[in-house]
From TrEMBL:
GO terms for cellular component: DNA-directed RNA polymerase complex; plastid. This is DNA-directed RNA polymerase. Pfam families: RNA_pol_A_bac (PF01000). Keywords: DNA-directed RNA polymerase, Nucleotidyltransferase, Transcription, Transferase. It comes from Iris pallida (Sweet iris). The lineage of its organism: Eukaryota, Viridiplantae, Streptophyta, Embryophyta, Tracheophyta. GO terms for biological process: DNA-templated transcription.
Length: 153
């Protein structure tokens, strides 16, 4: 039951990010406190909700200095951001941050290749599990010869 909950239930997540001025994911951008790698990790942690299949596009377009959160993601109307306060980046100078995002509904955990694709986008390890942790316990109850068990998830 635990394996089915963690690995087989589908979820929606960000699978790819693209910014025109970033050569590789370990670079830094002047005016942004976080490295590109840290921004990709922050994007990976954003929890999304959607019932539609296929790849959808979203974007972030903000001007600093400011604190960038999940609320700044411009997404299709059928994709809901569960926690809009999740941190993405901190812009410390008056620069523009433009990131194109791909959103996909899938199941389980998939790692992406470490190299960038031809278009300069950066793959994000896909964690499409809407349930991140599952615990269970079994309780027996009953009287006499009749015993029953209850499964708590």
């Amino acid at each position: 039951m635990r394996r089915a909950l963690l690995g087989e239930i589908e979820g929606t997540c960000i699978t790819r990010a693209k910014s025109g001025k970033v050569p590789h994911k370990y670079s830094t951008i002047v005016g942004i406190e976080e490295s590109v790698h840290e921004i990709l990790i922050n994007l990976k942690e954003i929890v999304l909700r959607s019932n539609l299949y296929g790849v959808r596009d979203a974007s972030i377009f903000v001007r600093g200095p400011r604190y960038v959160t999940a609320q700044d993601i411009i997404s299709p109307p059928f994709v809901e951001i569960v926690d809009t306060t999740q941190h993405i980046a901190n812009l410390t100078e008056p620069i523009y941050l433009c990131i194109g995002l791909q959103i996909k509904r899938d199941r389980g955990y998939r790692t992406n290749p470490t190299n960038n694709s031809q278009d300069g986008s950066h793959p994000i390890d896909v964690v499409s599990m809407p349930i991140r942790n599952a615990n269970h316990s079994i309780r027996s109850y009953g009287n006499g010869n009749e015993k029953q068990e209850i499964l708590f998830l």
